[in-house]
# Entry
Amino acid sequence: MISKKIITFCFFSLGLLWLFLLEGNVYAQTEYRDPFEARFPEKPEEVKKVEIKEPVGVSLPAMTINGILYAERGTSNVIINGQVYRIGEVIEGTTIKIHKIEKNKIFVLYQGGLFEVGIISKDIGKKEKK
# Structure
C-alpha cells in the first residue's frame, strides 16, 4: 500500500511543477500603493461653473419647492411639487431641468437660461425681538 508520505510528496511535486510552468504568468506587483491613501476623491467632481443668465422676458412656470435633501458627498435631492428629483432630471410636466442643488437653493435650466431658485426659511421656535 502507498504511504501517506509518498502521496504528500507527489502532490507537493505537482504543485511545484505547476508553479514552475506558470512562472511567466504569475502576478508580480511592481509598485506599492499607500494603504492609507484614499482610492477615490474625497469630494465629488464639482459641477461646471456656469454664469447665471436669466433670459429677458422669460420667467419660470409656477412650482413649489417642498424641501431640499442636501448631501456634501453622495446624491442630493430636491422635492418639487411633491415629487423627488436629482441633478439632471426634468421636472414633470415642464422642460425645467435640475442643474445644481445646494443647501438652500437650486439652479435650473429653462429655455436656454440658468435660474437660481431659493427656498423660504422660517425660524421655528424663535421669538421675534420687540
